[in-house]
User: Which sequence fits this backbone?
């Protein structure tokens, strides 16, 4: 795997974040995630100022991996690169976006939940793909089924992931990491509950270790 894929896989969980007040919260949130042992964040374009949030989080936590989610056009990719973002995540598979990201040299994880989308990902030489929305699209059972004809992929499921099912997903060798928003809900962020976010991250890290512990 590429160095980026190895780093994300080693962490095991990727917080998926909608940040309504980036100037106020990005730096503090980044520090809270790192304190909990989760030095990675996917800042989604579901809220304005995602590129600002990426820049501020990277400035506060230079060693952290900070990327963008819900990326749906090439202008957003340009904004992420300008902000110093490390990776791109798109909800679906858009060949134009994948080609553009690869041309710009930034890792991209497109959403794939069908054999046809897996086929496209194969043509672009991707190693890790997003599976979204995971639970609503068949969950781990479907991921395992698709791994039959496509064993070359590691998968990053996002959507419906929580502390309750995190271990089940991560115990599968197909899973690179799990994306989730349970540790970065709007209520936790908007109320500045940084200690609670840190604690949820610590619990997630323990689950990652437990799920991947050799039997």
Assistant:
């Amino acid at each position: 795997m590429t160095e980026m894929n190895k780093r994300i896989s080693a962490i095991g969980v990727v917080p998926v974040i909608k940040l309504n007040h980036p100037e106020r919260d990005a730096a503090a949130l980044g520090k809270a995630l790192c304190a909990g042992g989760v030095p990675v964040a996917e800042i989604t374009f579901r809220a304005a100022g995602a590129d600002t949030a990426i820049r501020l989080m990277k400035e506060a936590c230079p060693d952290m991996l900070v990327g963008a989610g819900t990326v749906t056009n090439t202008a957003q990719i340009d904004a992420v690169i300008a902000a110093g973002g490390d990776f791109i995540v798109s909800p679906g598979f858009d060949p134009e976006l994948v080609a553009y990201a690869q041309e710009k040299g930034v890792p991209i994880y497109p959403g794939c939940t069908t054999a046809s989308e897996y086929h496209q990902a194969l043509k672009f030489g991707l190693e890790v793909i997003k599976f979204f929305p995971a639970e609503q699209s068949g969950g781990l059972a479907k991921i395992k089924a698709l791994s039959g004809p496509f064993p070359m992929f590691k998968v990053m499921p996002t959507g419906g992931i929580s502390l309750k099912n995190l271990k089940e997903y991560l115990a599968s060798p197909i899973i690179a990491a799990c994306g989730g928003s349970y540790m970065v809900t709007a209520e936790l962020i908007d109320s500045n509950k940084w200690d609670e976010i840190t604690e949820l991250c610590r619990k997630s890290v323990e689950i990652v270790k437990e799920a991947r512990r050799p039997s």
